[in-house]
């Protein structure tokens, strides 16, 4: 005996999923049945869960642009650099 289940998917996700399943020759129903059976058999999610790569926020984006501009000589880089914490602390104490 089988029962019907409704799954709600974002339209774009469904479109991409359907395209990939069509290319593999697998129906959407077969895919979800396979995933469900593997979860029951393995007692775990049967695939690695990935996240979207992090997109730099505005602060990070500005810091990257500033660093690139300094590397290219567009903006002069007259800020001191340090190889160790001792030299950094000494410089801070002097200023």
Give the helix/strand layout.
Elements: H1 11-24, H2 28-42, H3 58-71, H4 85-94
What's the main sheet like?
none
Assembly state of the chains shown: single chain
Provide the structure class: mainly alpha
Which CATH top level class of the largest domain fits? Mainly Alpha
Q: How large is the share of residues in beta strands?
A: under 5%
Uncertain runs: none
Total of DSSP H or I helical runs spanning 4+ residues: 4
Give, in order, the helices and strands.
HHHH
> What sort of overall outline do the alpha carbons produce when their principal axes are compared?
elongated
Helix fraction by DSSP (H/I, runs of at least 4): 55-70%
Offer a quick outline of the entry:
This protein has 95 residues and is an all-alpha fold. It is built from four helices and no strands.
List the main descriptive attributes of the protein structure presented here.
Damage-inducible protein J, Ribbon_hlx_hlx, 0% strand, mainly alpha, Arc Repressor Mutant, 4 helices, 2 domains
Descriptive account of the structure:
This protein is mainly α. It folds into two domains: 1-49, Orthogonal Bundle (Arc Repressor Mutant); 58-94, no CATH class. 56% of the residues lie in helices and 0% in strands. It contains four helices and no strands. The longest helix has 15 residues, at 28-42. The mean pLDDT is 89. It comes from Lactobacillus gasseri. It holds the Pfam family RelB. This is Damage-inducible protein J.
């Amino acid at each position: 005996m089988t029962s019907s289940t409704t799954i709600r998917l974002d339209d774009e996700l469904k479109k991409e999923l359907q395209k990939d399943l069509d290319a593999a020759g697998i129906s959407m129903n077969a895919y979800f049945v396979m995933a469900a059976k593997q979860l029951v058999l393995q007692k775990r999610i049967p695939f690695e869960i990935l996240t979207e790569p992090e997109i730099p926020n505005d602060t990070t984006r500005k810091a990257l642009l500033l660093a690139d501009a300094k590397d290219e000589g567009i903006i002069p880089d007259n800020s001191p650099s340090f190889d160790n914490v001792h030299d950094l602390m000494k410089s801070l104490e002097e200023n």
